[in-house]
Amino acid sequence: MENVSVPGAPPPLCNDSVLLYSPTGNRSDLNCTPPFFADLYVILPVIYSVICAVGLTGNTAVIYMILKAPKMKTVTNMFILNLAIADDLFTLVLPISIAEHLLNYWPFGEVLCKVILSIDHYNIFSSIYFLTVMSIDRYLVVLSTVRSKRMPYRTYRAAKIISLCVWILVILIVMPFTVFAGVYVDPADGRKTCVLSFPSPEPLWFKTSRIYTLILGFAIPVSTFCILYTMMLYRLRNMRLNSNAKALDKAKKRVTVMVFVVLAVCLFCWTPFHLSTIIALTTDLRTTPLVIMISYFITSLSYANSCLNPFLYAFLDDNFRKAFKTMLECSSA
């Protein structure tokens, strides 16, 4: 594919979202020099920097509040804590992605390349898996309320163990990407980029990795909590019909709504990313400047999910709102 040069500017970096549209997943197969690159070269670092600053500040505040305030040590907040840690971990390494974009090559070596791409994929899987666990927990809470039964096994300690198991599962899922992550050297100009380097036949391996991510990072978790929330609504509806008692008290209902909204925002941010995978795998989509621009928008939207959750907690949960207010008052005193 012929490259189009932009006077006075290096060719733009083809990130992994753009590689979705490559027939092999190799950067050298793509035309990564859209005529609007001069704008992208400035806009993307600004967007990523805002996501990094807001996400790091908000998630660090959530982590601090849950660890500091005794009243915040609940089962749901344990899962929120781990979700915030996952988001914080991603925003911590985002400046390296910004540096790669601005430099237009990878100067950080093979080891850091593996670390960054691994964390990038942790971001894909960890959020959705912790939200799935939170959905299971909400379903069990609703079920116990409907049946008027206690849940002695639902403890803060149990939530810690489950969170550790989720991290181990995500590490195992991401391990293949860690193995294949490496520095690619363009034979034409010697430019280094951090990318997934698959063995031959590369197109087959690349498509397999996309299907792997789609199934484990989207299809299975989304199916799980869709089923859970459908069953939850069904049980609540039946209880309203058969009993005058409220299905959930005010506090439990508020937490359930918060989990549902956080889940909905996560789906809003990540669904375009996974839909783009389906489009890339099922169609012969030509890599045009418009496609590249859309791919960067989709990537930015998925990144933005890492900084939105703290605002949702503050807006939907009284305890978080009071904790945020107390923390701000203490910092201004």
UniProtKB/TrEMBL annotation:
PROSITE patterns with a match to the protein in the record: G_PROTEIN_RECEP_F1_1, G_PROTEIN_RECEP_F1_2
Keywords recorded for this protein, A-Z: Cell membrane, Disulfide bond, G-protein coupled receptor, Glycoprotein, Membrane, Receptor, Transducer, Transmembrane, Transmembrane helix
Subcellular location: Cell membrane
UniProt membrane topology term: Multi-pass membrane protein
An MF annotation (GO) of this entry: neuropeptide binding
Residue intervals passing through the bilayer: 40-67, 79-102, 122-141, 161-185, 211-234, 255-273, 293-316
Listed GO CC annotations: neuron projection; plasma membrane
Stored SMART domains: 7TM_GPCR_Srsx
InterPro entries: GPCR_Rhodpsn, GPCR_Rhodpsn_7TM, Neuropept_B/W_rcpt
Limits of the G-protein coupled receptors family 1 profile domain: 58-313
Protein family membership: Belongs to the G-protein coupled receptor 1 family.
Name recorded for this polypeptide: G-protein coupled receptors family 1 profile domain-containing protein
Taxonomic placement: Eukaryota, Metazoa, Chordata, Craniata, Vertebrata
Gene: npbwr2b
